[in-house]
Amino acid sequence: MEILWLLIGFIIGLLVAWFFLGARFREQLAQRESELMEDNRRVTESLEREQAAHATTQQRLSQAQAEESSALERAEALEAELGKSRDELDSERAASAEAKAQLDRLRSEGDELKARLKSAETGRGQLEAQLDQLQSESGELKARLESAETGRAQLEAQLKASGDGRSDEDQGHRTRAQ
Description:
Mean pLDDT: 87
Number of helices: 2
Structural class: mainly alpha
Distance between the termini: 207 Å
Low-confidence stretches: none
Number of strands: 0
């Protein structure tokens, strides 16, 4: 019987230990469940914040994609405008090169005309000098002619005075000499 009492004591001890251990286990379980619920609440809040952040990020991404699309359209328009500007620049450069070539030709022609003008002025100076010389010679010749005519008139007057009696043949000869 002692064994029975011992066995009953053991069983009662086990039951009491089981009860206390069960209570302790239930407390730990309740505490763990409370911790898990708190963790679950925190994770849920965190998930809600992350979902809100994700929604905001999605909106920003949509805006960024719209801005990127708009920027690409602007870039394409600017590239087209740049191409047009390059074409205009190329044609302006060609026109400028043509104008420069024409300016060079005109300068060359101007230099040639200046040289011709200088040559003409030199020739003009020479012609003026020749004209002056010819006018001077003409003046001398006129003076000599006047002197010769005066001399002739005097000779004719002398001849007339001295030779009224000369023959008509001498007069014809004189007329031919004149």
